[in-house]
């Protein structure tokens, strides 16, 4: 697999063949496509650290709720493949849905506990879809390292829990969130934003920074820190708060006082677009 050509495969059997010819360490970057610099940060890290990089592009139907944006989720395969080729990716796995979920598919992987809150509470079944597809991808690719963005903070922790609990032989590598120059975290869903909504979305990084500033000034009371975020978000008429959480960075249990690393995370609707973001506060 060390050739100059990037291989694009769409079936499980082609993927297995590509895997069989791989040498050295393998890095896997699971994505839903519509790639941006956030995804490419994962790819670049994988290129630095592993000898064969496999990127999957799969808009996974089972992680979307019935009233969510599965049908309109942006699909930009040609541009994605060109970007991955430029990054020197070795294998792209872009299966159709019935390749991942053939007729009769009836298994799932479910992580308990930390999936019941935040995104799990707002999007019932979401994490079961994520863990099932990522478990399948790990089994097919058998990577040494799995690259996940800190942007999806809870997802990163849920996958870490799955890997630990079930003894998958892979190291989960967290990659810091890539942001636009003005602070907005890159997301495929940012394309849904009309220009005035794009401007309004800046309230999210602004609210997180307000809490970070208070934290840096010594505030450790979690309710006060959450309050900073809520107050900042309230100043933007186009923003509707889903949740504001300040939780133990490992267990995602909500905190009273920040005495250990904590994830401050938000879900905010800007118009019809639901955005999530987070930062970690370290005492
Ligand atoms: P997605 O295509 O949204 O499923 O994302 C695929 C991977 O890219 C996930 O591990 C995400 O956490 C990661 N990712 C998405 N946006 C960013 C970002 N702005 N910075 C870093 N990683 C990201």
Task: Summarize the model shown.
This protein has 283 residues and is an alpha/beta fold. It has helices at residues 12-20, 37-49, 77-86, 97-100, 118-122, 126-141, 153-166, 195-200, 203-216, 222-234; strands spanning 7-9, 26-31, 52-57, 91-93, 145-149, 171-175, 239-248, 262-270, 273-281. The longest helix is centred in the middle third of the chain and has 16 residues, at 126-141.
How are the secondary structure elements laid out?
Blueprint: E1 7-9, H1 12-20, E2 26-31, H2 37-49, E3 52-57, H3 77-86, E4 91-93, H4 97-100, H5 118-122, H6 126-141, E5 145-149, H7 153-166, E6 171-175, H8 195-200, H9 203-216, H10 222-234, E7 239-248, E8 262-270, E9 273-281
Parallel strand pairs: 1-4, 2-3, 2-5, 3-4, 5-6
Antiparallel strand pairs: 7-8, 8-9
Helix pairs in contact: 6-7, 9-10
The protein binds adenosine monophosphate.
Residues 31-32, 38-39, 41-42, 148-149, 151-152, 175, 177-178, 185-188 line the site of adenosine monophosphate (AMP).
